[in-house]
Fold:
Amino acid sequence: MDINKLKSFPPQTVKPEPGRLLLSEPFLNDGYFRRAVILITEHNKEGSVGFILNKPLDISLSDIVADAPKFDGMMLMGGPVGRDTLHFIHTLGHKISGSKKINDGVYWGGDFEVVKTLISEGKLYPDEIKFFVGYSGWSAKQLEMEVKKNSWFVLPSSAEYIMNQDTSHLWYRILRDMGEEYSAYANYPVDPILN
Structure:
C-alpha cells in the first residue's frame, strides 16, 4: 500500500480485520498498550488476536528456545496473553510451510523447524521475520467495543509498517502519515500531568 493513501482512510470508518493495524489513542494508559501498534492476525465471531509491533524485548531467540540457532532477529512482546508462547510473522510464506497470509507479503506462523533450518543455513535475515512472546487477545465483540470507545484507531497496513525495524518511532510515524489532523497527537506527552 502507498503510505500516502493512509490519509484517505479515516480510522473511524475502517473495521478490524486480519492485516489491519490498531494504533492506540494517545492517552490510553495501559502498561501493555500505551502507544502500541498492533497487527491484527485473526478476527472472527469468537474474538481477535494480534501482536504488538513496537515493544522490543532484550532477549534473543536462543534465550527462549534452547535448540534454536543464534539469530539477531527482533524479539517483541506480543501482548499480555500467553506469555509462555512464541509466535512469528515473516515475509517468507513461499519458504515456510503452514504460513497464513495476513497481508500482501506478510505471513503469520508456519513450521518452526523450517525457520530454524533457514536460520542455520543463513537463508533467513533479521528484516524478514519478527518473533513475539505472548499475544494480544480480545473476546467476542470486545475489540469492536474498544474501537467504539475510541481506544484504538483501525488502519490499513503495509509490509513497510509491519516489518519496520525502527520500533521506537513506529507509533509516531504512523500518526504523522495519517495526515495533519492526527499528527498533532504525536506531540502529546505520554503523561499529560507531567506537561
Remarks:
- The chain has one domain: 3-66+75-86+129-194.
- The CA atoms of residues 164 and 170 lie 8 Å apart.
- The beta strands are 21-24, 37-44, 47-52, 74-77, 81-90, 100-103, 106-108, 129-139, 152-155.
- The first helix runs from residue 61 to 64.
